[in-house]
Design brief:
With 129 residues, the chain is an all-alpha fold. The protein is 90% helix and 0% strand.
C-alpha cells in the first residue's frame, strides 16, 4: 500500500482507524516504515491541532470566567461601599440622638437642681405668721 492509499484511508475512515490498523499492516509489510512514520506524524499533527483548539477554547472560557469574577468583585465592592455608607449614616444618626438626649438630661438636671434649691430655701425660711 502506497502513501496515497494511506492518505485516502485517513481522509475517508479517519486517523484513528488508520492508526489502529497500522501495526497489522506493518507486520504484513503492506506499508513501508517511512510511510508509517509519515502517517504517524500526520496523526500527531492532527492531535496537536485538536489539542491546540481545546486549549484555545479553554483560554476563552478562562477569559470569560475572569470577566465574570471581575464583575462580581466590582458588584461586591459597590455593595460593601453602600453598606459602609449606610452604617456610617446610622451611626451619625445615633450619635446625634445621643447628643440630644444628653442635652435633655443636662437641662432636666439643671431644672431639678433649681427646684430642689427653691424647695430647700422655702423649708429653711422662717414661717410667717
Amino acid at each position: 500500500m502506497d502513501l496515497s492509499e494511506l492518505m485516502s484511508l485517513v481522509l475517508s475512515k479517519g486517523v484513528d482507524y488508520v492508526i489502529a490498523q497500522l501495526p497489522n499492516w506493518i507486520s504484513k509489510k503492506e506499508v513501508s516504515r517511512e510511510d508509517a512514520e509519515l502517517i504517524l506524524m500526520y496523526a500527531m499533527m492532527n492531535r496537536l491541532d485538536e489539542f491546540s483548539k481545546k486549549i484555545d477554547g479553554l483560554g476563552n472560557k478562562m477569559d470569560e470566567l475572569g470577566k465574570k469574577i471581575d464583575t462580581r468583585f466590582d458588584e461586591l465592592g459597590r455593595k460593601i461601599d453602600d453598606l459602609r455608607k449606610e452604617v456610617i449614616d446610622r451611626l451619625d444618626l445615633i450619635s446625634n440622638q445621643l447628643r440630644v438626649l444628653n442635652s435633655n438630661i443636662a437641662a432636666t438636671y439643671e431644672l431639678t437642681s433649681k427646684v430642689m434649691t427653691k424647695l430647700m430655701e422655702s423649708s429653711i425660711a422662717p414661717a410667717r405668721t
